[in-house]
Amino acid sequence: MAKKRGNDYLKDKGFLSQKQDGYFSLRLHVAGGNLTSENLRYIADAADKYGKGYVHVTSRQGIEVPFVHNNNTEAISSLMDNAGIAPGASGKKIRAIVACQGNRVCSNGIIDCQDICEKIDKKYFGQPVPYKFKIAVTGCPASCLRVQENDFGIMGTVQPKFVEENCVTCGLCKKVCKVDAIDITDGVLTIDPDKCIMCGECIRVCKKDAMQIANEGFTIYVGGKVGRKPRMGIRILKTVSEPVMYEVFERTVAYYREHALEGERIIDVIDRYGINHFEREIGYSFDLMR
User: Fold this and answer.
1) pTM to 2 decimals?
2) pLDDT band at 1, cuts 50/70/90?
């Protein structure tokens, strides 16, 4: 019989206690929702042997194997280690990053979400923070990964530039715009920048090169969360370069570690100090939008 371990030890190994005495759910590390078919075979075998023959797919693209008895925690951990599947994170840590498939697969994808996910995950996953820190990466403003609900959200965006001399006012851009940011009145086309969500659809459909890319990059949201007191994230920067995005991310994590009190999320710190303090500490001029 395996030796019983304390709950702190088990938590570090990815085990979350269940309501059933002596049973745990094993949380596995999944970055960006990606697992190989070989990974899945190992997980299925583990669930059959040490669980109840099923797995739970979490709301954050994770995998958990429930109903693992305390006596089997070492054995299932060893099986996962041999398969190269690490335990997931819980508690006061940077959690697994969620990401859509981005421009590797999706026709709407503006950025390579999986590449960004892999880079951040490699350096930051499981690192200690004052409470918890959730990150999401989405390929376009459709926001399938709900970046506005995360402590740090990264969205691919593209700002259009209208070249009037190329326009034949065919209306394709106006028709495809889902937020009514484009208007054609008396043969004159205008774009409302306050309505434009920078999805790039107008650029894709324009056959006359009248809609061109003015700027393409990463739009950043900070401070979103769900739970008992949900908050939508604040857009702090739009269409910045990849190096700037990484720099802002690293400075945000550093700011959180330096200023957070016990149990605070990043938005709680921003609320306490004020957005201007956060802006000064990050070192970039914010383009704020709720």
Assistant:
1) 0.93
2) very low
